[in-house]
Design goal:
YbjH, PAP2/HPO_sf, globular, PAP2/HPO, 12-stranded antiparallel barrel, 930 residues, YjbH domain-containing protein, alpha+beta, Porin, 15-stranded antiparallel β-sheet
């Protein structure tokens, strides 16, 4: 155990920049999967507030907020603009990918990149290898090579004495050429040189610190590492006990139960356990319940407590109990218990889980499962509501005033604190307020939601720099709204939630959506049986509110429409793609990635690409800014002594941008149903149902991490098959002659076609054709990916071959561009001239190569030659847009067709790979001989 502890300490120590390594130099290791580390490092002249996460076992991502001592953030101006910003600051994103994990004889190998986005002042690339030595594996050595930052060869050594647990001593060769850093002559960086560095470090549990000595100065780094792979960090010391059968009334017959107060007593017992929207129906000999729980985080556990209570109050003669779990009165999952005695035995520990599972059906709900008010035995029973009270350390709030009744009518008064970074008028802005929320149930699935806010202390209103955005100011005027008034009506709207059919849900909304917009709209969500994916469509007609925060309005109006596809990958990674019209009337796509850890913590990022031209720095007319950001979601039940569904969310993104923006959703359906759906598909769907010791010892309340299967056997098989099917020399010769003849023949059309297109560049038809041609490869590649994700075995294999063909054709095309370097038609240099930038050369057309590579496997497998026509029409759109000559497109098509045909011929008989979705799992099978 000691040797293992020492090895882990060696492998995962952050540098002053956050990436795992030594002092400034990286090693080839990444932190353990699901580890989140946050810290501060100072190495003159750079101070770095950083956060690093390992979202996948082989990937480490780091975000840094770096300040540079000696350089003001903004030059002094007579008007004082930027005078409060302080020293220069920059946001940086780094990444490290471990290619090879250390083994007995092989070192770990990783590649990394620094400053991937934004200003790229600290941009660098490197490759590094690391190996541990000794029987205790307490000595590690690394050797690497970098470009830019670090520059050239670098090395590092770490020794963790076995006799000094927690301590380690470090030496490295720092290969950063500091004199080339941004404005180095004005800072201490100009005096620093490459050379040796030594350091001492200490790690105690989650905490760690390092002190290092350089040639002429010291550096320091301190951090805390949080293992999000843990299920919870604080034991549930104050969790209320489940209902005790000794507190139940005496059993009565079915007829007596219907006419007595037993149904009301059952409801009251459930309400006292935080159940809401409780409905009870006795259907023959089946006791049916419809309910939700706003506190218990695991759906199986919530249903287990409800079932235990229902069993205690059930009349004699009941043969089955059905419990339907709902959200906002919409049925999500139904648990059917057919054997009452077996249910009782399992809850009391007399039956094992396997025998109990034979008497349980866990399934998706349909509209008929929900017990409506008109069918409920309690339709006329209402209570007076819960009393208003002060709660300390509840739901993650230090203090709150709240009230909530059994119909989920609630009032809550809580303190709020917000931070805003990086505005020129002040690097850090804050807002402290009191928020009041009032939610009222108006009818079945019909709710009124409102929010008020009173600002107490803030300096966001001090942001005075006007926006220079050329887009409609949907977000960049936020400072005006903060100055508009201290007391505001943030939200006031009516939401109607509906279950259209099994797997189909809908929401209709109208009112004040958020601080800046009001409107009306709706959303439709489809949750298929296959839990890997879901899809929704959201449409909202919106008008901008005025800055005072009440009922006033501005003139700006728009309609947003976004379709979304959510897909789950291994390691509990969810990818969401949104496409449509955004808030500033810009159209495009938004990609979101998030990883859910065992603790329930989620970390993710998004990137948006639209036709909106945001040229605010660092955006330029040639390279507009694209909206992007990262977010962290922390379920508070892992940090509280009692269970809770409350979640703390953090997001870091530019807060004064207009491009790629979305209105705050009145009620995002996928987010509403995501956790219950995950619980439904975790193991057997029961979760921590009975709260028994054997359940606590098993990892039953979190879905198992689906890891990527070993890709090497299938990769090796495909390579072997492809090599064995490589064309012979005569085939190469014959194919080359045919391809060369086609390209030469098409070259005769280059100039005539371009002479026809040139005067018609503004023609709407040609312009639309050009846009379609530009988008075609992306659409076809997406279709290939969809075939892998959703198709049967045959189509999945074609999708894999198509994606391989796309990668191969794109590679050949890009290399050919650099070698040939032909100018594009719109450069006006002629068909035989060289391009100004070889990487952007014209011959061959990359779009045509990708398009034909994508369709060829499907066209040949399914005898669908019309797919070639689709690829040809799209590719010729590049000619219509004067991005390519005709011969460029023909050459690209030949490349794509040749590679697609070769790989299809080699791998078409592969029936070994299959992805089979089930109600509780996804089976990945691979058969064959290797």
């Amino acid at each position: 155990m000691l040797a293992l502890t020492v090895a882990n300490a060696i492998a995962a120590t952050p540098t002053v920049h956050g990436q795992s390594g030594y002092v400034n130099m990286p090693n080839a290791n990444v932190e353990a999967d699901s580890t989140f580390t946050i810290g501060y490092g100072y190495d003159s002249p750079y101070g770095s507030f950083w956060a690093a996460v390992t979202p996948l076992p082989f990937l480490q991502v780091t975000g840094r907020y770096v300040s540079i001592t000696g350089i003001p953030g903004f030059d002094r101006n007579p008007d004082g603009y930027g005078s409060e910003y302080g020293r220069y600051k920059d946001k940086i994103a780094d990444a490290k990918l471990q290619l090879v994990k250390e083994s007995t004889w092989m070192p770990a190998v990783a590649v990394g990149a620094t400053d991937l986005l934004g200003t790229e002042l600290f941009q660098g690339r490197y490759i590094v290898a690391s190996k541990t030595f000794g029987s205790a594996r307490n000595l590690e050595a690394s050797l690497g090579f970098g470009r830019n930052r670090p520059s050239g060869a670098f090395a590092g050594v770490r020794w963790a004495p076995v006799s000094m647990p927690g301590w380690a001593f470090v030496a490295e060769y720092d290969a950063i050429d500091y004199a080339k850093d941004f404005r180095a002559a004005e800072t201490d960086a100009g005096q620093r040189k490459k050379g040796p560095v030594v350091a001492a470090e200490y790690r105690w549990g989650w905490l760690g610190a390092q002190i290092a000595r350089h040639r002429d100065h010291f550096s320091a780094n301190a951090y805390i590492s949080i293992p999000f792979s843990e299920r919870e960090f604080i034991p549930k010391l104050y969790e209320p006990a489940y209902f005790q059968a000794k507190n139940a009334p005496a059993r009565v017959s079915l007829e007596e139960w219907r006419s007595s107060t037993h149904p009301a007593a059952l409801v009251q017992a459930l309400v006292r356990q935080d159940y809401k929207n409780v409905r009870v129906e006795l259907d023959g000999a089946t006791l049916r319940l419809s309910l939700t729980n706003n506190r218990i985080s695991d759906m199986g556990r919530a249903v287990g407590r409800a079932s235990r209570t229902a069993l205690a109050f059930a009349p004699a003669g009941v043969r089955a109990i059905h419990v339907t779990y709902t959200k906002l009165e919409q049925p999500i999952a139904t648990y059917e218990f057919f054997d009452i005695q077996r249910l009782s035995d399992y809850l009391t520990g007399l039956a094992d889980r396997e025998s109990f599972l034979q008497t349980v059906l866990v399934r998706y709900s349909n509209p008929a499962d929900k017990v409506g008010e008109e069918r409920s035995l309690l339709a006329a029973i209402r209570d007076d509501g819960a009393a208003l009270g002060v709660q300390i350390n509840h739901d993650g709030n230090f203090v709150q005033v709240s009230s909530e009744d059994r119909e989920a009518n609630r009032f809550k008064l809580v303190p709020k604190f917000s931070l805003f970074f990086n505005d020129p008028s002040g690097a850090l802005r804050y807002e402290t307020a009191v928020a009041a929320n009032y939610d009222k149930r108006l009818g079945e699935g019909l709710y009124f939601n409102s929010a008020f806010k009173l600002n107490l202390f803030e300096n966001v209103s001090g942001v005075t720099q006007p926006s220079n955005s050329l887009l409609p100011h949907v977000r960049t005027d936020i400072a005006e709204y903060k100055r508009g008034g201290r007391f505001k009506l943030q939200r006031a709207l009516v939401n109607k939630y509906m279950t259209i059919d099994e797997h189909w849900y809908a929401r209709a909304s109208g009112g004040l959506y958020e601080e800046m917009f009001r409107g009306a709209g709706g959303q439709v969500l489809y949750l298929p049986q296959d839990r890997r994916w879901a899809a929704d469509l959201t449409v909202d007609a919106l008008q901008q509110r005025d800055v005072k925060g009440w009922l006033g309005r501005r003139d700006y109006k728009t309609v947003t429409a976004l379709g979304a596809l959510h897909y789950q990958l291994p390691y509990d990674v969810t990818v969401t793609g949104r496409a449509g019209r955004f808030l500033a009337k810009d159209e495009g796509v938004r990609l979101e990635f998030k990883r859910r850890f065992r603790s329930g913590v989620e970390i993710g990022a998004w990137f948006t690409k639209t036709n909106g031209k945001d040229i605010t720095s660092p955006g330029t007319p040639a390279d507009p800014y694209n909206d992007k950001g990262i977010f962290l979601s922390i379920p508070l039940n892992i940090t509280l002594p009692s269970d809770s569904q409350a979640v703390a969310g953090f997001a870091i993104s530019p807060w004064t941008r207009d491009v790629g923006q979305m209105v705050a959703s009145p009620g995002e359906l996928y987010e509403l149903f995501e956790d219950p759906r995950r619980d439904l598909n975790a193991y057997d769907g029961l979760g921590n149902f009975a709260e028994r010791r054997d359940e606590q010892q098993r990892d039953v309340i979190t879905r198992p991490v689906q890891r990527l299967p070993d890709a090497w056997p299938r990769f090796r098989w495909r390579v072997e098959q492809s090599v064995s099917a490589t064309p012979t020399l005569p085939q190469w010769a014959r194919g080359s002659l045919l391809a060369g003849g086609a390209v030469l023949a098409s070259a005769a059309l280059d100039k005539p076609v371009d002479r026809f297109v040139r005067p018609r560049e503004d023609n709407r038809v040609l312009d639309a054709w050009g846009k379609a041609g530009k988008a075609m490869p992306v659409v076809l590649a997406g279709a290939a990916g969809a075939a892998v994700a959703f198709g049967d075995n045959r189509m999945q294999n074609m999708g894999i071959i198509s994606l391989q063909s796309i990668a191969g054709a794109a590679g050949v095309s890009m290399v050919s561009k650099r070698v040939i370097g032909r100018a594009r038609p719109n450069e006006e240099l002629g068909a035989s001239s060289h391009a100004g930038k070889r990487s952007d050369a014209s011959f061959p057309s990359n779009h045509a190569a990708v398009a034909f590579a994508a369709v060829t496997p499907f066209a040949q497998e399914y005898d669908a030659p019309w797919l070639y026509g689709l690829a040809a029409i799209g590719s010729l759109g590049r000619v219509a847009d004067r991005q390519h000559w005709v011969s460029d497109v023909v050459a690209g098509g030949v490349v794509g067709y040749a590679i697609g045909s070769w790989l299809w011929q080699a791998q078409r008989d592969d029936s070994r790979f299959a992805i089979t979705p089930g109600s509780k799992q996804i089976a990945v099978t691979w058969s064959g001989t290797y």
